[in-house]
Specification:
The complex is a heterotrimer of chains A (574), B (160) and C (429). Chain B contains 7 helices and 4 strands. Chain B has helices spanning 10-20, 30-41, 46-56, 60-69, 89-93, 96-107, 149-158; strands at residues 81-86, 120-125, 137-139, 142-144. In chain B, helix 1 (10-20) packs antiparallel against helix 2 (30-41) and helix 3 packs across helix 4 (60-69). Chain B starts with 9 loop residues before the first helix and ends with a helix. With 429 residues, chain C is an alpha/beta fold. A 5-stranded mixed beta sheet of chain C has the order 8-7-13-10-11, with helices on one face. Classes of the chains: A alpha+beta (574), B alpha+beta (160), C alpha/beta (429). Chains in contact: A-B, A-C, B-C. Chains B and C meet through helix 2, helix 4, helix 5 and helix 6 of B and strand 3, strand 7, strand 13 and helix 13 of C.
Chain lengths: 574, 160, 429
């Protein structure tokens, strides 16, 4: 085999580029370089790749193996560009932009090379597209259309590998679709640091896999599916559920823990079918955990509270009332209890899973009703890990603190439970929590409670015991703001409609508050947020609109971006 | 770990331990460690790959990837006499396919297989870098030059 | 004037692999000379001035390669000896390793000294068990004699040499794949730049040289660059080991100055064609990765520049000779299978292209070829060439292009006859 080409002799200091480009380059700072990409000048930081420099200009250089969140592998060879004075085409991902470089990303030579790479990638690729879940968001399809030759010259038997392999509990592997870009291996080595995947064999028989008997089972395995540019790795819960071109992707925020990973909700036929990460360098970078991907399942896996229900004393079954009457009844019960036992005998349990708007309105309404004892129960499991997962499983503990409820407090919750058990509490408002179902309260200890008002999305044990139960929207069914553990305020967006009579908790609370004389006529979450921003100092100067897609860091008490990619650099095609 | 379930013997483990400090970086010990395993077992069982991974502080998947990259690490047992016949151009020009055919016929197995008694295994390999002795082969670690039908018969008669 | 054998001067002797025989033949004199009176820089300059070009494949000037090392810093520098001789048709380094390891070792010590290296690795292909054993013995003898280890020959210079065995992978002869393998990984070539001289083994500056290249260094140091320049042809200086195998009477390794005529190697050294009634059909002068020459174009001189002018390369000087009985489709298929088997599988064009070649050639050889197949082979080869991470792409693209182009009518015959005219498919078994 010929030896590799040798490095050119070191450049003489001060030697000028041989031919000055026809287009004048802008001045570059000391740690910057200026170059031309497709005749357009661009200035980038030293160390930026040619591919990234092109993206800065909005010029997409097609690629499979390169991913901005991973190290460079340079194996797919799709991102070839031509660089003046370099005899061979260079791969844009692994070539550093240099001062005065003249780069061409789409001339006939580059196009011919891309066409060659496409042909090589497709000769052994199965024609699975009709039944492949990746179809519609497959980079092979996309690039075959844009850069391929449009016909096959390959008449041989394709290389065969195992298909439909359960490589992990949540991920399925198809060896024939794999193009060996190694993104998944690099993810497990560099990001999750779990090292389950390896490359086995060599040549055309090279294949991704786990060690015999081991499985791709880590908290972040779903990311391998996201970054797989083809249909080799698919997400088990989404397999054969919907064609991706029917999905509507709604940008939102994961509600699974205090991280609040930015996500896309994939909606089809009024149902969420998949949640995938949306890049936010300040919160989750390109990634999210497997638990978060499955948070939508809660919407569908237990009976919903569909309509307002009022249970008369001694009645076995609750009666269904129109909403205003149900709220009237709740208010009346609470008022009677206060009258009978005093305001101190009425308490509230509100959830850190609620939005800032819900919590703010809870604060307003409860204060108006004279209820001052409010606890926020904690929901913790596992530990904070080195990547994204938080022990705190509530998305909005910092929001609860912001509106004045304090952070989730196990001791205060236990104290209230004790007081209820001891018969000292006679009225209780529960918003978004299920203390009975969670084992915090025993149903038979609720006997002394004369007014139990529950606002929740599900037919929970607590809701079943309620005198008045009001149906709320569930996660991903309403707009709102949450504040993650870093103090990053971000907007949840509604992905799917709630049951017809369900309302966001803040609306029920507004109505309840009105029964006690609360003024104000907010009709949208944005109006509530802007009111909160006007009243709460940490939110000062913020508005609903200003939060945009990436949110806003209120206080920077924690470390910034979770990985090395510079904030604000959005890859055109990750 | 009890003796019965050891992935490698105490002696092999000692060898591997010594390898860990032999090179400027521990990672370089991998290929020599796999050789040490193969010296003991005649091949590199999965349990031993796992064991070596633990010794070097790398993932088992990484070790298995390395094992499967190099043709000299056997992933299943081979015969007591492992015949590797060179199939590349210079040996082909001098009759290596005829030699292979003769061996297959005499041993009653196809290339890639092991005789039922475990005595012989047969493999076509790429250029052994001994084209001056074509057609050439290796039987275990030994070079066998200038093979022909007579030499094949003589060799098979001699090896037990 | 008869040519004085240098590289093979000891090879004919009994026990030529021992230190005693080496010393009796003047071994380690160059080392004594260098360590007693020369600076590392002087050794490097001498090698540079000698015009020594790498004997591994590309013929890159060795001294210049060494001079790419960055300024001495905190990081150690490494010399990795490429003893992964795997290019089909090549077996010259094996001879040196097994028969005159001390000549190689002296070259290693001198070169390490020249580049300020204190740990050198001898990466030898796994199949060379015998060579590895012999070289380990030679190293042990050299340590005992004070040629290796601390304070070599009282000079204050320290050097350790470690033997590292590959395990069956042609690609590890590519220098960055060799480094990966030496680091205990799959032998996947690295993206360059950075080049190993800057970022090599363990991220440190590293020089990788071929065995035969290093075996030249003792002569250059001992007798001087001027003397060395007198051997061979301008810019193609020094003694060279030529391998020749295939359809010749006496396959073997022959030493001659660079630039001897191929026909002299074939007829005088190798005893001519194996069968008198089967004339020369084609030869690959440089190892299987190089372009094939049909008999009519075999009147060439064997050196880097002459062969480049003839449209091929000296490569590793692994000459393979094919007579008139050879089916060129079958020969190319054999090589294609080799490259398919040895492709590391890392980058797309090589991983996919090598298998494609094999499949097309299988069909042709089996009589199922289509008339467009020869052109398809050439077109696919052009799409592999230049597009891969390492030179493996060229190593398969060049033979494919040249075999098909030079013997197009034979490929076409396979198509029109619907069978191999040489009965090749049956012969291959």
């Amino acid at each position: 085999m010929p030896e590799p080409t040798q490095p050119p002799p070191p450049a003489k200091p001060g030697s000028a580029p041989a031919a000055a480009p026809a287009i004048e380059l802008p001045a570059a700072g000391p740690d910057e370089v200026a170059l031309l990409v497709d005749e357009r000048p661009v200035v980038v930081k030293k160390g930026t790749s040619v591919l990234q420099a092109a993206e800065r200009l909005g010029i997409a250089v097609p690629h499979y193996c390169y991913h901005p969140g991973l190290t460079v592998a340079g194996n797919c060879r799709m991102c070839f560009v031509e660089i003046e004075k370099m005899p061979k085409l260079q791969i844009g991902c692994a070539t550093q932009a240099m001062q005065g470089m003249v780069v061409r990303t789409a001339n006939p030579r580059v196009k011919a090379a891309r066409e060659s790479i496409m042909e090589f990638l497709l000769i052994n690729h199965p024609l699975d597209c009709p039944i492949c879940d990746q179809a519609g968001e497959c980079r092979l399809q996309q690039y075959a259309n844009a850069y391929g030759r449009g016909e096959s010259r390959f008449v041989e038997e394709k290389i065969h590998h195992d298909k439909g392999v359960p490589i992990g509990p949540r991920v399925v592997f198809d060896g024939e679709r794999c193009i060996k870009c190694t993104r998944c291996i690099r993810f497990c080595d560099e990001v999750s640091k779990t090292h389950e995947l390896g490359l086995f064999e060599r040549g055309g028989h090279a294949i991704i896999g786990t060690f015999p008997g081991k499985s791709l089972d880590n908290d972040y395995s779903g990311n391998t599916v996201d970054i797989c540019p083809v249909g080799a790795l698919t997400w088990k819960p989404f397999r054969f559920q919907a064609r991706v071109w029917f999905l509507r992707n709604v940008p939102s925020v994961c509600t699974g823990c205090a991280r609040g990973c930015n996500v896309e909700l994939a909606v089809y036929d009024h149902r969420i079918h998949r949640i995938t990460p949306r890049r936010n360098a300040a919160v989750n970078d390109y990634w999210m955990c497997d638990l978060g991907r499955q948070t939508y399942e809660k919407l569908y896996d237990r009976p919903r509270l569909e309509r307002p229900a009022v249970r008369a004393a001694g009645a076995a079954a609750p009666a269904v009332l129109p909403s205003p009457e149900a709220v009237d009844r709740a208010a009346a019960l609470l008022r009677e209890t206060v009258t009978r036992h005093g305001a101190a005998s009425v308490a509230a349990i509100v959830s850190a899973r609620l939005t800032l708007e819900d919590l703010f309105m809870a604060r307003q309404a409860l204060r108006q009703a004279g209820i001052t004892r409010v606890v926020v129960p904690p929901h913790e499991s596992g530990e904070d890990d080195a990547l994204l997962l938080r022990r705190d499983k509530t998305p909005n503990a910092r929001g609860a603190e912001l509106v004045g409820f304090g952070r989730p407090d196990a001791a205060a919750t236990a104290k209230l439970a004790g007081d209820i058990a001891a018969g000292h509490v006679h009225g209780l408002v529960v918003v978004g929590e299920d203390p009975v179902g969670d084992g915090v309260l025993k149903a038979d200890r609720l006997a002394t409670i004369e007014a139990l008002v529950v606002i929740d999305a599900w037919q929970t044990e607590t809701a079943k015991a309620a005198h008045v139960a009001l149906p709320a929207t569930g996660p991903y069914e309403a707009d709102g703001v949450v504040v993650n553990f870093q103090g990053h305020a971000q907007r949840l967006r509604r992905g799917v409609p709630a049951p017809a009579l369900a309302e966001p908790s803040w609306r029920w609370l507004r109505e309840l508050g009105r029964r006690f004389g609360l003024a104000g006529s907010w009709t949208t979450a944005s109006a509530v947020f802007d009111q909160a921003a006007a009243e709460l100092k940490p939110l000062a100067s913020l508005s609903w609109r200003s939060l945009g897609g990436d949110g806003h860091r209120l206080v920077s008490t924690e470390a910034g971006p979770v990985s090395g990619a510079p904030a604000g650099t959005q890859a055109l095609e990750p | 770990m009890s003796t019965a379930t050891r992935a490698v013997s105490v002696e092999t483990e000692k060898k591997i331990d010594a390898l860990l400090t032999k090179y400027p970086r521990k990672s370089s010990a991998l290929l020599p460690a796999l050789y040490a395993v193969q010296e003991e077992h005649g091949w590199v069982p999965e349990e031993a790959q796992d064991f070596v991974a633990g010794k070097l502080g790398v993932s088992p998947a990484f070790v298995a990837g390395v094992v499967s990259f190099y043709t000299m690490f056997h992933r299943k047992p081979v015969g007591r006499h492992h015949f590797q016949i060179c199939r590349t151009l210079s040996c082909m020009l001098r009759g290596s396919h005829e030699v292979m055919a003769r061996l297959e016929q005499k041993l009653g197995i196809a290339r890639g297989a092991v005789t039922p008694d475990g005595r012989f295994s047969l493999q076509f390999v790429e250029c052994l870098g001994a084209c001056d002795t074509a057609p050439c082969a290796q039987v275990n670690d030994d070079d066998v030059p200038l093979l022909d039908a007579a030499k094949v018969d003589e060799l098979l008669a001699r090896l037990k | 004037m008869a040519y004085e054998k240098l590289l093979l001067k000891n090879v004919g002797r009994d026990d030529s692999h021992t230190l005693d025989v080496s010393l009796a033949g003047g071994g380690y004199q160059a080392l004594k000379k260098a360590l007693s009176g020369m600076t590392p820089e002087a050794v490097l300059e001498e090698v540079k001035a000698s015009g020594l070009r790498g004997r591994g494949g590309a013929g890159f000037p060795t001294g210049m390669k060494w001079s790419f090392l960055p300024k001495l810093g905190d990081k150690p520098r490494y010399l990795c000896v490429n003893a992964d001789e795997s290019e089909p048709g090549t077996f010259k380094d094996r001879l040196l390793i097994e028969r005159d390891p001390h000549l190689v070792l002296e070259g290693i010590i001198l070169s390490s000294f020249a580049i300020h290296c204190h740990t050198a690795f001898f990466y030898i292909r796994g199949e060379f068990q015998k060579g590895a054993r012999i070289f380990e013995q030679a190293i042990a003898e050299a340590y005992a004699k004070g040629f290796l280890g601390k304070n070599i020959l009282g000079s204050g210079y320290d050097l350790d040499v470690l033997v590292y065995r590959g395990a069956g992978a042609y690609i590890c002869g590519e220098e960055t794949a060799l480094l990966e393998s030496l680091e205990g990984k799959r032998g996947l070539p690295r993206i360059k730049p950075p080049f190993p001289a800057i970022v090599g083994l363990y991220g440190c500056p590293t020089i990788i040289n071929n065995v035969e290249t290093l075996a030249n260094v003792p002569f250059i140091v001992e007798r001087g660059a001027g003397w060395y320049n007198g051997i061979g042809r301008p810019k193609n200086t020094g003694p060279k080991l030529f391998c020749i195998s295939g359809h010749v009477k006496k396959p073997g390794v022959y030493e001659a100055p660079l630039g001897i005529p191929f026909k002299e190697l074939l007829n005088e050294h190798a005893g001519g064609m194996l069968h008198p009634d089967r004339p020369l059909k084609a030869a690959v002068p440089g190892g299987s990765s190089m372009k094939v020459l049909p008999a009519a174009r075999c009147d060439v001189l064997l050196d880097f520049d002459s062969l480049a002018a003839a449209g091929t390369m000296l490569g590793s000087a692994g000459g393979m000779v094919m007579d008139s009985s050879t089916c060129m489709v079958g020969a190319l298929l054999n090589l294609a299978e080799f490259y398919e088997h040895e492709s590391c599988g890392q980058c797309t064009p090589c991983r996919e292209g090598t298998g494609w070649f094999t499949k097309i050639l299988h069909r042709l050889e089996a009589g199922h070829g289509r008339k467009e197949d020869p052109d398809l082979l050439i077109d696919v080869a052009k799409r592999v060439e230049g597009n891969t991470i390492c030179p493996f792409g060229e190593a398969i693209a060049w033979p494919v292009q040249s075999y098909v182009a030079e013997f197009k009518s034979e490929f076409d015959d396979h198509v029109t006859k619907g069978a191999c005219p040489f009965g090749g498919a049956a012969k291959r078994g």
